[in-house]
Amino acid sequence: MKIIACIKQVPDSEAKVKADDGKISWGDAPLVINPFDEYAVEGALQQKEAIGGTVTVLCIGPESAKDALKHALAMGADDAILVSDTALIELDTVGAARILAAAINKIGGADMIVFGRQTLDNGAGLTPAQTARILGWPMLGLAGQIKVDGGRVTVDRVIEEGRQTVSAKLPVVISVVQSIGEPRYPSFMGIRKASKVEIPLWSLKDIKTTTPAAIIMRIELINPPVRETTVEMIAGDSPAAIAEKLADKILAEKVL
Amino acid sequence: MKTFVYIDHFKGEVQPASWEAIGLAKTFGTVVALVFGSGLDEIVKAAFEYGADEVIVVDDSALTDYRAEPYASTLSALASSSTPDLILFPATARTRELAAMSAVDLNTGVLTDVTKFELNGSQLIATRPIYEGKVLEKTVCSGKPVIATIPGRAFLKPERVVGKKGTLTKGEVKAEALTTVQGYSASESAVNLGDAGIIVSGGRGVSNNPALVPPAGMDEKQAEIWRAQQGFALVTELAKLLGGAVGASRAAVDGGYIPYSHQVGQTGKVVSPELYIACGISGAIQHLVGMRNAKIIIAINKDADAPIFKVARYGVVGDLFAIVPALTEALKKKLGK
Where are the domains of chain A? Predict the structure, then answer.
């Protein structure tokens, strides 16, 4: 089975991200593989182990995003491709989906495309379903478990109301959630192997497409207002005494 | 301005943010509610009563189970023929896919998790969180219609006027299901933190009760999880008493103490309840941005220097295993329960 895991590089989730002079700054925090996409790579590798095949990791980004791809290679992916083009700086989710679909076609298609549920930076979580729509493939979203049997894939979909079992014929686009299992750590051998891999760089010309027009545009960045609170510490001689005081405070706030 | 409001429901239960979307759309002009599925009379009635001027209902057995592809095609066809200026969705697992796909069909874009709209002439400017809510951006969509999703509790729920009616239109299904729904189980972990008015959350601290002796034969990790589950039982008891939901920090979820659907912060899920009680949560930045919009925050933590106290209204430095059950007892008495 041919599996493609789509990933993105983002500032580490511990980073103190802020708006600085109309731009996003994350200080000296490292750029890492989007944490949700680590689960996508994990999910893809699980399928490779279960039924055989290859895992290709695909990323849109600047050359520095090769580090995120190397992380996925070190986890056990077979090869990696970076779509990088100076024309791709302002890309909205539909634009990203169009580029990914074009790259997937250039790869020669796949049986399964795996995404993380969303990225840490934009956080919209739209690209998986938009890629599926552009390809015309079924979308199996928010999978906590994936099982392939014959030409059919069945997932356990985690939604607000519980879990649903949903299936579709291959090829499919899947987005995964954390229930898929903790992403494996890159092995020593994996890291060594990844360091030697030459990651091909594809331009828009290579994937026979042009810059998609940006439909969603950012006009301003704002740092959220700092919450002005003074904490009132509740103390007392015993837990019961503290609880008594705290319960009165809660009731007085009229939030129950 | 004409707005489509998609009413999201699951097995007859409407996501309350659907009504909040009607209330918001009313402030822009005409509201057309879209109700898809089968056996929809009650939902259609409610949509009128919450303020829809028109309801387009597509009641068809082919739409019994939500599946992204036929729902998106049906929606896109209606939007093409009826040309709304805006399509609003309550933000849920389903609508994220639906909005995403219809945006491709209609060659437009989606503004997700919008917490504020401003009108600049006829252009809508949306404020939404990025980087897990660490930063907000104002964005515009140059496509038409503008598509947007709103989180629960970001906009006021309109008054329900019983008996209110409007224009009912029947729409047609564009069926092309590519997926099959084979089963459903309402797991205990089912939780919608976005709509919760009260959230009681546990963090790493819930596993930290050395007084508890785990059953024999457990290894270290199993014992830690067992301890944490005892801690979460206390958190759950307080949440139940208050009619609230159980939340968790990333540390608690990563520790395997509780399913990730309870996680506040980092999933892009910013909660805004009236009351948020953080038990044994130190307050990592992702958690703080996820819950700092709560009206009243109470922090219970052993460590007086924990960052969570910086956003709290009330704080208790102490052992959650003593304080939380005592608080449950005290509130039980005072509420007469």
Answer: 2-202
Q: Count of domains in chain B?
A: 2
ipTM for the predicted complex comes to 0.94
The 8-class DSSP code of residue A215 comes to -
Q: Longest Cα pair distance anywhere in chain A, in angstroms?
A: 73
From A16, A124, A127, residue closest to B285, measured CB to CB: A16
B6: domain CATH number is 3.40.50.620
Q: Check residue A229 and give its pLDDT.
A: 78
Query: Does pLDDT of B281 surpass 90?
Result: yes
CB A49, CB A42: distance < 8 Å: no
Nearest to A229 among B132, B135, B311 (CB): B311
List Cβ neighbours of B83 (8 Å cut-off, separation of 6 or more): B2, B144, B145
A116: distance to nearest CA of chain B, Å? 11
**Where would I find the H helices in B128-219?**
none
Instruction: Read off the pTM.
Output: 0.91
Residue B195 has pLDDT above 90, yes or no: no
Query: Could you report the per-residue pLDDT of B209-218, keeping only the tens digit for each?
Result: 888 889 999 9
Inter-chain CB proximity B10 and A159 less than 8 Å: yes
Q: Show the DSSP H helices in chain A as ranges.
A: 35-51, 66-75, 93-107, 127-135, 188-196, 239-252
Q: Are strands B116-120 and B110-111 parallel, antiparallel or unpaired?
A: unpaired
Q: Which segments of chain B are extended strands (E)? A: 2-6, 9-10, 13-14, 30-37, 54-59, 86-90, 110-111, 116-120, 123-130, 135-141, 146-150, 167-170, 179-185, 198-202, 245-248, 275-279, 296-301, 314-317
Question: Selecting from 3.40.1830.10, 3.10.290.10, 3.40.50.150, 3.40.50.620, what CATH number does the domain A2-202 have?
Answer: 3.40.50.620
Q: Is A178 on the interface with B (CB under 8 A)?
A: yes
Residue B190: pLDDT band with limits 50, 70, 90: low
The Cα B79–Cα A230 span in angstroms is 49
Q: How far apart are CA B270 and CA A126, in angstroms?
A: 17
Please give the share of chain B, as a percent, with pLDDT higher than 70.
97
Q: Are strands B54-59 and B146-150 parallel, antiparallel or unpaired?
A: unpaired
Residues B166 and B197 in one domain: no
Cα–Cα distance measured from residue A72 to residue A33, given in angstroms and rounded to the nearest whole number: 8
Scan residues 211-240 of A and list those with Cβ closer than 8 Å to B.
214-224, 227, 229, 231-235, 239-240
- Contact of A124 with chain B, judged by CB distance below 8 Å, is answered with yes
